Input
Amino acid sequence: MEAGYKPQTTFRWTAMDNIFRIWRGVLARRLHVPKRTTELVAFLALSTTVFLFIHTRDLHTRLRHMEGRLTSEDETAAAAQAQSVFGSTFPPQVSPASASSPSRPSSVTPQRHLDPPRPQNIIERARGGRAVFSAADTANEIHGSQESSPPSGSGSSSHGAAAVGGPSAEVTAVEPPWALNNTGRANLDVIFFNRVPKVGSQMFMDLLHRLSVRNGFEFRRDQIHRMETIRVRPEDELRLGAMVASIPPPAVYVKHVCFTNFTKFGLPEPIYVNMVRDPVERVISWYYYVRAPWYYVERKQAFPDLPLPDPKWLRKDFETCVLSGDSECRYIEGNIRDGIGDHRRQSMFFCGHGDECTPFNSEGAIQKAKWSVEHHYSVVGVLEDLNKTLAVLEGYIPRFFSGAQRVHIDQMSHFPHINRNPFKPPVREEVKNIVRRNFTREIDFYEFCKQRLHRQYAAMKLANL
Output
């Protein structure tokens, strides 16, 4: 090696050390980022998180929607298999009278219920202390208090035959609760119970009275009238609506009266509830109820000058009335008869006060009654499905009906014979079948209400999974 030569290793390590020192200084130096840029980045991150959360829930709900439909199809197949095994002893899903009715409306597929639910629009909100399901994009929320026109002819119900069976009925088993709950459209925290006679309404009214103490709301009922009029003039409708709207909420008001649309008078809409019963069983019950001794005792006490009925009329039994062709038990389609004692038309309590609601067993009246149920009533209970009715009431209107099932059990244990008529004899099935032939559309309306209750119950159970 030459003299004076120095290795370059020291120089190289010194240069690398200087480079590292420079980078450490750059990294250690605090870079200035504008505040708006930081907020923008945070907003984008939050938006992305929310979008992913909503999209995940949407996919999850679609999956459950498909699972529910598959479950419904499996149940239908199982029922068909059981029918083939057990033959005619297996209970049919639709009553023979309604299935064979020539007047049953054509099958209509409710498009609103076929669309997959959008959970990002489902909100659980509190109005007046009650929790309800709603949807921001439903027709109720879009149109507000402006009403769409009710149907005026046959086949205009949005559910039609789907509510009483048929191919399109199975799609109703997977609907979300908000699609079947009209509680959210109410602008008044008052229940309007326009009770139908002889559908368990006395028991239901007693239940509401007990719940008013438990849940802290006011209970009111209409007074007894000498002659009860269930159809009233428009000015009386307005007077009734204004009176109900003046009741301090929360409250319940009970009255025998046809459906009254408060919004057409510019009044806030209450929470509509009611009950229905098998039309033929209800007519038989009413027939013997107006002949019961206590019925005239109560009316004689209230109105002493009221004349007593003919004893021969009191002793007339229902079977003889039907088989002899008595005018009281003929139930002629299209017949118009109004006033006290004529409660054949259960549907009229849902159709309204118009003249089109008066003809017995008419298609127009039935379709309008269905429209009112679907667009206004939160819950229409069924006497034959009382446990399911109470469960749906608790789930859809908890502000008023919380604990209804427990209160009803206690009520029945202390008063098991509320409004029962021991003077009502049994009626043979062949006589009932004669009457059913004249109640085809009334039976169709009853099946519609029953299917709607079942759909509400299934949707509520699905939401709680």
